[in-house]
Design brief:
This protein has two helices and six strands. The protein has helices spanning about 30-45, 85-90; strands spanning about 5-10, 15-20, 50, 60, 65-70, 75-80. Helices cover about 15% and strands about 30% of the residues. It has one domain (about 5-115). With about 120 residues, the protein is an alpha+beta fold. A two-stranded antiparallel ribbon has the order 1-2. Strands 3-4 form a two-stranded antiparallel ribbon.
Length: about 120
């Protein structure tokens, strides 16, 4: 069994989930694979959580990975995620932009995502 991907780390009033880098499957060797894997993990931990994106437009999944053939006849992953963010941290002079991302959930992704 690989290392747990998400653990709960208390920081002040917020509960933050930490990613154990050694839990990323070794076959992920491109940014594209990393993106799809991370989005699938977010979809898994969101566990049906939904977000209201457009007023009166109904809710959509907080994170999802779909497969479609686009107009150019190429099979593609369609990756959508609505990740909450800390607006105060977004414009930090010392932290990278991605550090403003807040957790969707603090659960562990399904075990099938944690191996090659």
């Amino acid at each position: 069994m690989r290392d747990s991907v998400r653990t709960t780390v208390p920081t002040g009033f917020l509960t933050v989930a930490a990613l154990t880098l050694s839990a990323i499957p070794s076959s992920i060797n491109t940014y594209e694979r990393l993106l799809v894997w991370a989005a699938q993990c977010c979809q898994s931990i969101a566990n049906g959580q939904q977000v209201n994106v457009i007023e009166n437009g109904g809710n959509v999944p907080a994170a999802q990975v779909q497969v479609a053939i686009t107009a150019d006849n190429v099979s593609r992953f369609i990756v959508t995620a609505y990740v909450p963010l800390d607006e105060g941290a977004l414009n930090s002079a010392t932290a990278k932009t991605w550090m403003a991302a807040k957790d969707i959930a603090t659960t562990t992704p399904h075990s099938n995502l944690l191996s090659n």
